[in-house]
Design a protein that fits this description.
2 copies of one chain form a homodimer. In chain A, 37% of the residues lie in helices and 22% in strands. With 256 residues, chain A is α/β, with parallel strands linked by helices. The first copy, chain A, has a single domain, classed as Rossmann fold (3-Layer(aba) Sandwich). The longest helix of chain A has 26 residues. Strand 9 of chain A pairs antiparallel with strand 9 of chain B, so a sheet runs across the interface. Chains A, B: This is Alpha/beta hydrolase.
Amino acid sequence: MHSVQFTAETTSGGVLERDFTVGGIPGVLWSPAPTSERAPLVLMGHGGGTHKKWPAMPGRAHRIVHGCGFHVACIDAPGHGGRPRTPYDEQEIAALYRAREAGEPEGPIVVRYNADLAERAVPEWQATLDALQGLPEIGADGPVGYYGLNMATAIGVPLTAAEPRITAAVFGLHWPDALAAPAGRITVPVQFHLQWDDEHIPREAGLALFDAFASAEKTLHANAGRHKEHPRFEADSAARFFARHLTRSVPAPAVN
Amino acid sequence: MHSVQFTAETTSGGVLERDFTVGGIPGVLWSPAPTSERAPLVLMGHGGGTHKKWPAMPGRAHRIVHGCGFHVACIDAPGHGGRPRTPYDEQEIAALYRAREAGEPEGPIVVRYNADLAERAVPEWQATLDALQGLPEIGADGPVGYYGLNMATAIGVPLTAAEPRITAAVFGLHWPDALAAPAGRITVPVQFHLQWDDEHIPREAGLALFDAFASAEKTLHANAGRHKEHPRFEADSAARFFARHLTRSVPAPAVN
């Protein structure tokens, strides 16, 4: 098993931000500063074409650290941020840009490429979680959530379906094609975000993915607006969702 | 214009509860205790077959008073609580019970009866709002919201469409039949609650009513579960929605 290697550390606005690697995968861990007591962990994925420190990521992480007192970890997806692209990555990204320039639908390419990324990313997330749970301020038996929209939903749905340590998840803004089957194996509480006037994802497709989750407790938040108009206040909804679901069973802190 | 006649007053858990009448219509006003500064007002409707002090009403009111520092007012709908039933009320209520006993759909009766109740209730709400705005702790130009599910949506949608003083509204759990047209005239921010597995209101019907609002800012909260399983945490969502939309433009308190 790989362990967490910390490579840099800053503190800003009461939040400790530590860059790390696990088996060569670069990540960042946001924590309450100073970190002393054990706290739940939220795994947070970034969207397609961005990376672990894209402004929305520290923004959402700070809301969760401040609002819940939890840790938040994000790693670069394959081919993203500080990670090399394979020839297949280059080919799919070129196909996506061609479709955009031609005004053709992005959906078929995004669905296909994200499914491939998910196959590579799921084991990386599991190794990262193994390593993070080795830190005394997280621990092996603490609550774990997952938070990711767009490409991070394409990765997070199969991850959550495969990973019993994840007990609550926020997803959204994706097609059901490759995800309806793993969603049907997810039974933990889910909050799902959808844009009512999404120009890429047909409304019926977004609703079908929400419908596919087997969770007894699931909530859809659908907002008026286009794909990129997903409102910022939904990051607060996500933080409150995690506060509700990850705090109940926090184990007593280990002797440390 | 009628004025507010207070008839009883209690204080519990930091909330002042005052019974009142306006032109013979009985209501209740919940306020932060002690009430000193001017604060926004939320008009809250009760569901069919219940009344202004049905447990959900003071429960939701306390969340708004505590969470936002606002006033909350609820009045008994026609034929409900302390108000007499007309022969037409008796006839429709009997028809509803017959449909329930026979296992027939309630929808057609509820839609028809609630539309009639709304015609009677809208002017009553307007007179109540006129009178409440005469109180120094509310005032004539403060922000006003509306919050009501089920029958209170059937009343609240035409009320909000007709009433420019209402600048934010929470609705839900109703059919679109009589409401899609007035919803199409509503442009203020709306939060809409729907039960994903509602045994009375078909999913497509609930989604169609959400779709009908002309508001640029509208959010659907759809939760897994049947009609009566609407989760309690959505009362907190409503309180946060009102905090976001009714606090920005609070006028300076009058000299008092």
